[in-house]
Amino acid sequence: MYISTPLIRKSALFVSALLGGAIFSSCASVHSPSNQALPSSADRAAPIAETASDVSQKTQAAPVSRPRPQLIKKASMTVIVNSVDKSIDSVSQIINKQQGDLIGLQEQQPTRNSSRHTASIELRVPQNSLESTLEELAKLGTVENRNIAAEDVGDRLVDFQARLTNLRKTEANLQKIMDRAGSVRDVLSVAQELSNVRQSIEQIDAQLKNLQNQVAYSAIALNLEAAVSSSSPQRAVGSQIQETWNNSTNSFGAFTVGLLKLGIWLIVYSPYLLILAAGIYSFSRWRRTQSPRLRLLQTPESTDSE
């Protein structure tokens, strides 16, 4: 027993030393590869920086989509031309070329020697052709003034479209309710509401189309003025003689008609005229018969006095 106990202790120490060396070597082998596989902080920060720069570049490169403004454009122009009549023909050709419309024409001919021949024309052209049309019109003569006004109606268009969408959804819902309605009273009530909604839809749809039409086409108010005041040429001698003859014959005819009318009036009132003439004749005859008697009565008185 005394000999075996030291041997057992020595063998236990030897086995413990072997196990400790094996464990230490295994731990060393495990920690060394993991340390080599893990990246450093600088290596981890580089890809993150590259990713952030790529995102910022893409954000700057991609343009922000903005809604296109819906503009109603109106233009006015006054042009001094040599001939208003020829300029009106040229305006018609320009409008046909630009696929526009001539809405109105008001021409004023000169009435006095100092007045000018003028014309006011209302035009409508596609909005994308407004600038080119104004340039063509400016070539007709000398531009005295030129104005362009624009109004953005994008918000109004969006509002009308939203209201129209909501009203159409309401119309569909009311139609479903009407299909499920049982009593006549409910059907009439829903039908009245449906009629009001449809009337609102028609009104808003008309306003929307009107705005869209004004956006698509631009209006131009063009004023043409002659460069020199027009004077009426002197008429020929033959036309003046013809006019005098016409005036004289008209006057003779009017005088003849006046005499005929006067004769008709005299014929109608002839009984009264005859009575008046008879009274005047009787009175004058009575005066003549009474005059000798008065003389005879006055003569004796005169003799007695002597």
TrEMBL record:
Pfam family, one: DUF4349
Biased composition (Polar residues): 53-62
The keyword Phosphoprotein is assigned to this record: no
Segments for region (Disordered): 34-67
Record bears the keyword Transmembrane helix: yes
InterPro entries in the record: DUF4349
Keywords: Membrane, Signal, Transmembrane, Transmembrane helix
Signal peptide start and end residues: 1-28
Parts of the chain that traverse the membrane: 262-283
Domain named DUF4349: residues: 70-280
Name under which the protein is recorded: DUF4349 domain-containing protein
Species per Swiss-Prot/TrEMBL record: Dendronalium phyllosphericum CENA369
